[in-house]
Amino acid sequence: MNKICKGDEVVVITGKDKNKRGLVRALIGSSKVLVEGVGLVKKHVKPNPMKGDMGGVINKEMPLNISNVLLFNPVTNKPDRVGFKVLEDGNKVRVYKSNGEVIVKA
């Protein structure tokens, strides 16, 4: 079980996009995340008439290191660290470190 999963709302805590929030689009390996609307770079693309690509300059999302994002806690409206807890029925769940509430998947 990962501390950050696809669909989680995260806050960037360092870098040029510090304090920006977004949803996790994908996990890349175990150390990178792709966050929606964060980590944008300009990429120059050559035209390809076979595919119908016009070419030019496009904005592309680049992956961030998982250590540079924290999960957003809607109760406190702040970024929060994540821990794990085993419930009495044997299920392992993610919890917020600040208040111990279970993280529900949206």
Structure description:
With 106 residues, the chain is mostly beta strands. It has one domain: SH3 type barrels, CATH 2.30.30.30. Helices cover 0% and strands 45% of the residues. It contains no helices and ten strands. The chain has strands at residues 9-12, 21-28, 32-35, 40-45, 56-61, 64-65, 69-73, 78-80, 82-86, 92-96. The strands form three sheets. The chain has a six-stranded antiparallel beta sheet with strand order 6-3-2-1-7-8, with no helix packed on it. It has a two-stranded antiparallel sheet with strand order 4-5. It has a two-stranded antiparallel sheet with strand order 9-10. Strand 9 (82-86) and strand 10 form a beta hairpin. It is elongated, with a radius of gyration of 17 Å. The model has no long low-confidence stretch (mean pLDDT 94).
